[in-house]
Design brief:
Layout: H1 2-8, E1 13-20, H2 34-38, E2 44-48, H3 54-65, E3 72-78
Length: 80
C-alpha cells in the first residue's frame, strides 16, 4: 500500500499501533521496526509517545502528505 501510494502520488496518512512498551523486550508477534520498514516509501514517519503530541503530529502529517503527494506514517506507541 505504501509503495502504490508513493508511485501513484496519493496523499495518504497511515496510523499504526505499536505494542505496549512493557512487552517489547519479549519480541511479541506483530511488533517490529515499523518506522524502518516504512522509511523508503514515506516522506515522513514518526512514532507518537505522548498523547499531548497527537494534535501537533497529526496536523503535520496531513500537511506533509499534501506537499508533494507522498504517504506519511504515524506509529502510536502504547505506554503504560
Amino acid at each position: 500500500m505504501l509503495y502504490n501510494s508513493k508511485t501513484g502520488g496519493v496523499p495518504l496518512v497511515i496510523t499504526t499501533g505499536q505494542n505496549d512498551t512493557r512487552l517489547l523486550q519479549y519480541d511479541p508477534h506483530l511488533s517490529g521496526d515499523i518506522l524502518g520498514i516504512a522509511k523508503p516509501h514515506t516522506k515522513w514517519s514518526t512514532e507518537l509517545v505522548h498523547a499531548a503530541d497527537i494534535p501537533t503530529v497529526m496536523q503535520r502529517a496531513f500537511k506533509m502528505a499534501l506537499q508533494p503527494l507522498w504517504p506519511v506514517l504515524v506509529s502510536i506507541l502504547k505506554m503504560c
